[in-house]
Amino acid sequence: SDEIEWWDYDDAKEMAEAVAGDVQFIIESAIDARGAAVVALSGGKTPIPIYDKLARAKLDWKRVTIVPVDERIVPLGDPLSNVTMIGKAFIPKGARVIPIVSQSTADHKAAGRAADAIMQDLHWPLDLCLLGVGADGHTASIFPGPDYDEALNGPRERRALGVMPDPLPVEAPVPRVTLSRQGIVTARALMIAVTGAEKRRVIEQAIAQGPSSPYPIGRVLADAELPVDIHWAP
Ligand code: 6PG
C-alpha cells in the first residue's frame, strides 16, 4: 500500500479503546450500507483487551458475522483455539462467530480446504481484516517458511488454506489454517494492532524492504490495495 499510517498510543489500554472505536465504526458503516457486516479478527493475545472493549459497544450484533483471520488446528474449546477466544467476547452479544476449524485433524491441507469452503459462503470482500504480527514477521498464520509462497501466491479465488509452519511456532505449536494473501489484501479495511518495540522494528524493516521482504507482513503490506492503519503501543 502507498498509504501506511502509524497510530501510537501510551499503553495497550489506550490502543484498545481506539481500535475498538474504529472497528465499531467500520461495522456500523457496513450495517448502514447493506444491513450486515462480515469481519475477520486476529487471534493471539494482543487483541484480547480490544475485544473486551468492542464487545461493550452498542451495535446490532445479530447482523455481525465474525471469522478468525487464522486458526490453530485444535478442537473447539481448546485454550489455543482463536475462535474460542473471540467467541467468549462476542457470542454472548448475539454475533455469529464462525469456527473455521471444527475438529482436530492431522491433515492440515484438508482443514484448509474446509476453511476455504466456509469463507466462500461469506459476503466478500470482508468489511475488515484486523491483523496481528509475530516477532518473526508472520501475520495471520502466514509464516516465513515452506507455506509462504502458497499462502501469498496461491490461486486468486482461494480465501483460506492449511499451513504447517516449520518450525512450529512456540506459542502454539500446531498446524494452522489461515486467510490467504488474497483474502487479506482485498478486505475493505485493513488494520494491524501490535505492541512492543520488537514488533515495531520488524514492521518498519518490512515496510522498508517492500515487495521483496522476507517477512510475510512485508509482502502483505506491499500488496495491500487500500490504506493500512498500524496501531501500536509499547
Ligand atoms: C495466531 C495469530 C497470529 C498473531 C500473532 C501475534 O493465531 O497466533 O492470529 O498471527 O496475531 O502471532 O500474536 P500475539 O498477539 O499473541 O503476540
From TrEMBL:
Kindly list the GO molecular function terms attached to this UniProt entry: 6-phosphogluconolactonase activity
Gene3D superfamilies found in the cross-reference section: 3.40.50.1360
List the InterPro entries.
6-phosphogluconolactonase_DevB, 6PGL, Glc/Gal-6P_isomerase, NagB/RpiA_transferase-like
Specify the Glucosamine/galactosamine-6-phosphate isomerase domain's residue ranges.
Answer: 11-222
Q: Which stretches are transmembrane? A: none
The alphabetized list of GO BP terms reads: carbohydrate metabolic process; pentose-phosphate shunt
The protein's name is: 6-phosphogluconolactonase
Organism, by scientific name, is: Sphingomonas lenta
Gene behind this protein: pgl
